[in-house]
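**User:** I keep going back and forth on a fold encoding question. It is easy to fool oneself when nobody else works the same problem. Could you pick a protein and write out its sequence and tokenised fold? Could you put it straight underneath, so I can go through it closely?

**Assistant:**
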Amino acid sequence: MKPKTDAVRDISFKDGKLANADDVVKQFYAAGGFTAKKLGMAVDIVERMLKDKDCLKFFSFPACINATGTRGVVKDMIRRKWFDVIMGTCGTLDHDIARIYENYYHGDFMMDDRELLDKGISRLGNVLVPTESYGIILEDKFKEFLPKIFASFSDEQKKKGISTHELIWKIGELIDKDPKAQRHKEESIVYWLWKNQIPMVVPGPTDGSVGYQIWQYAQDHDFRLNLMPDETLLINNAWDAKKTGALIIGGGISKHHTIWHQQWRGGLEYAVYISTAVEWDGSLSGAQPREAISWKKISKTAKFVNVEEDATIALPLIYAALNERMK
């Protein structure tokens, strides 16, 4: 008896090439074959989410991909206003802001890390981050930025502190005005968050260089971060939304903070995970979407998929395919 499903189709190159990224993912779906089909499913789900006018859309990602060229994809999704709320980490601010002013470089996973240490170079996977491209430039810029941000505090912010999403908007505004940032500011995630007034919440704001610079400045100034307005924004948005959906890259605090707030409303209606983390160690990073159903973080009736793939491969393909469809 034949199964009542579509037949597996071979990938076909017309004139030796595929038409575009959308053609690639459609053929991946039709070809079946494990993760390739899931990539096609992911594009279908995100497309439905983006086109659903009743859906509040979340985008969550870790810092590491923004040390790579995949930062350009993240930036473009924010520039195009595809998402309503962004969930990130302090490291995202670090890498995004540092790369406005200095370059990161190609390296290799198997390089001698002791030798790199002696040369003042840090290694992030196969990306090389010289000290002057990270710690030094961030220290210099935040010595300049933080007094201006502190001076611009509203009376409420002076009294209670500033939320992370408001802080990011203030940094973006300063980047827009910075003469040294003009050449590369439109490559920046933080710039487009400010430009489009899209809130990005950083639930672990001291876990990185930007947070450390704030801590240092706060030793002599009453500069305080207040996470409660971020929480209010997230809970109110999730509570009031008719539907919610999320594209979630990787795991950790940014992933959990995205799905945690969904349980009050019965869970996400759309969910796409892209992760290489394993399920069997019990970590949140490796937890599958089906597990989130038991916590009411993803709805029982949701459209969801977990794509087991390196995000620096999967996300550009997904974006390129969606770009064709969203035209």
About this structure: The mean pLDDT is 95. Strands lie at 55-60, 85-87, 105-106, 121-124, 127-130, 200-201, 243-249, 268-274, 298-307. The chain is about 45% helix and 15% strand.
